[in-house]
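Field: COMPLEX_INPUT
Field: COMPONENT_COUNT = two
Field: RESIDUE_TOTAL = 612
Field: MODE = joint
Values follow.
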Amino acid sequence: MIRFLKRQQRYWQLYLLALIPFTLVLLFSYMPMYGILLAFKDYSIKRGILGGKWVGLKYFNQLFTIPNFPLILRNTIVLSLESMVIGFPFPILLALAFNEIANRHTRKVLQTVSFAPFFISTVVVVSIIFQMFSYRYGVVNTIIKALGGDSVNFLGIAGFFRPAYIISGIWQGAGYSSILYISALSAVDVTLYDAAAIDGASRLQKVLNVDIPCIMPTIVITLILNVGNILSIGFEKAYLLQNPVNYKYSEIIATYVYKTGIEQAQFSFATAVGLFNSVVNCIMLILVNTIVGKISETSLF
Amino acid sequence: MTTQVKHRKSRLNKFSNLPAGDKIYLSIVYLFLGIFLLMVIYPLLYVVSCSFSSPEALIQGRVFFLPVEPGVQGYEAVFSNSRIWRGYANTILYTVLGTTISTCATMIAAYVLSRREFPIRGFLTVFFMITMFISGGTIPMYLWLKSLKMLNTLWAIVVPGAVSVWLVIVARTFIQSTIPEELFEATSLDGGSYLQYLFRVVLPLSKPILAVLAINFALGHWNSYYSALIYLNDASKFPLQIVLRDILVQNSVDITNSAVAGDVNNQMHKQYLSELLKYSLIIVSSAPLLVVYPFLQKYFIKGTMIGSIKG
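Field: COMPLEX_OUTPUT
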């Protein structure tokens, strides 16, 4: 034992340094995990977070029986599935398109432009949507009127929520997400292009038979990671875009947790809802990883 | 590399010399790219132009591309609003403090994990990685910060996310792959300790990765609104993004606070001005990032690249 401690002695500075991030992670990542138990207990202000009575699955039963539960779950799944299916190809197409620009300088400038929205906050993105589609002053309605149409109150249409959510997501993230594919494309072995050229391949055939197969592993990994996050779609944008009209599309698990937990202080119930969300996420990740692993050789674990 | 260049050159052939199929294909590609980039730029251009137009031109819908009746009335309104100033000051405070704390904590974690001989290295790696997959969730975190008496303080904003596990891995990979192990051996032969090695060798050689960390954290703090929404309830502590939400999304703009009930025209003008203010506010809040990002984007790209090699 003493010899063991002696051996550790020369690492004491490393132990000391490690203590800083260790404490931070322990305090702000692990301690809150302990609070998950709250989902199985009655919260009482008097007895602290975990002093309450054990109630088992009471709050999960409550969740499954609220009338809006199917709606919220469906909204969450549909919104993230649509975001993924519609948004996923864009960065890939963008990368392939950038790759066709021969002039390095032009390519660099255009790429820089495509990143710009990534640096804009969600609040500002939602504000820009509101301003451009505003009923009275928005530029979209100005154009509609100029073309002889009648103003449309876009923000008062429930169905406006999903396109706004999905398209603004592409607007904000496609340029940035294309980085990964662009770098994968730059690593493509050029002899493959030469071989394709000898076979008389056209541009499109080179893309289909050389580029896409070469970046397939990157595509698959990104896909798995995206699916793993299927239910953890952003609270921020959904909450900001939400109004009483589009509630039937915009209420998702995350906004529901915020409302019941933070606004109404139903702590145990909201914890249960959050936990349900994480568990479904975890199952999805494992499921997709196994399926993809069976189909191709690339998998996450 | 030379073949790469040759290849690029060969792709440079005059467009007109290409076979018909390639022409059609390239036209479609350029069209797609053109439309996409136009869609990226137009909203930004539109907001900038509106912010520099006159309130009347804006309300009458005369702004499409460039500013109409150029002026800075919107900016004057923004800068005379004390809430916006305070939000700005708070955001700068949170960003500077948060970025400093996070960069230090994350870099220390990365350094410790980069020392292969450190006995608890494996344990620490797992300890950190687990938090990428499991978290307590919103409410347990809220209650825990409450019991720590951190709610409604700036510490709730700047401390909890200090160690970013993803960036720890990025920085560790950087240290291990770019700083030669011989430097460590040389330092220890000279009797240097782990701390001396960190400060005299690792940190000076890690400037690029420190930039990656700092920029990632700074962007996160500048644009963050979720933690302020949940953990702060004192309006004097609200960061810019919360003020933005109140004014832009919830429409609770109040620039008429100086108003002695004026005549109708004056009221109208004020209402127009509050509409114009929104555009100027969007620019004022986003400009710092939009101006610097072209110079910093390589650090984001670097972070993404190193991160993807491991992940």
